[in-house]
User: What shape does this take?
Amino acid sequence: MTRLLPLVLAVSAAVLVHIGGCQGPEPAGPAGAAANAAPTPIEHTLFDEILRAHVKEGMVDYRTLQAKDAGKLQEYLRSLALADPTAFKGPDDELAFWLNAYNAFVIAGVLEHYPGLEKVQDLPDFFKDTRWSAAGQLYSLNEIENEIIRPEFGDPRIHFILVCAAQSCPPLQAGAMIPETLQADLDRATREAVNNAKYVLVDADAGVLRLTRIMSWYQKDFVEKDGSLEAFLLRYLEEPARSQVEGGEHTIEFMAYDWTLNDLS
Assistant: This one.
């Protein structure tokens, strides 16, 4: 599953990275030990520090982040650009990388237009055309989500981790994804979201199941995994909503989506 990508000259609106240069001499030693050394593990410590400092109850304190830790974010973006995909230790390591990269690029894109930005939808190129450097290639946010994360990992829980800087997005996690706890974090984030009336609301009296519009946009992902939206929800819903969905007849409605910036300040 690891993407073996060539290192290239990578430029984005937020980070400029030059990779390459003159070739040095052959590695010393009879077997070229330096050339065969294991690639450096990909670290997310900087992003974890940023999120823990500036994310409160799923919202981002962009003002303080911009004032205090914009340089740290740029350093993390440089590490994403220079990441060696051969260093991925397995699927969880790779998925954690792309989830973190997506969320970091969204934050960096917001900061480029902050303050004064009310919603990222006011930036027509935000998801489709603005390109970011990751693992030696340039990607748009849509490409990361729809050409890497969704098709390669086939896990609808990612929709409760990826955050597009809107009020109706799932809460941004106050910590980076790491492979050691990724599966537990995916389960936890999903369970928290589907048991929050902001994203899933069972109106038993009216016979209506109101769902986040994310489950409409990406319905295919949920249905392919569990057979139906309800079946997916039943894996995570708590009582009494679980029994109401499991035993009652209902229609499904999708909530309006609030694109207002998820700005704490």
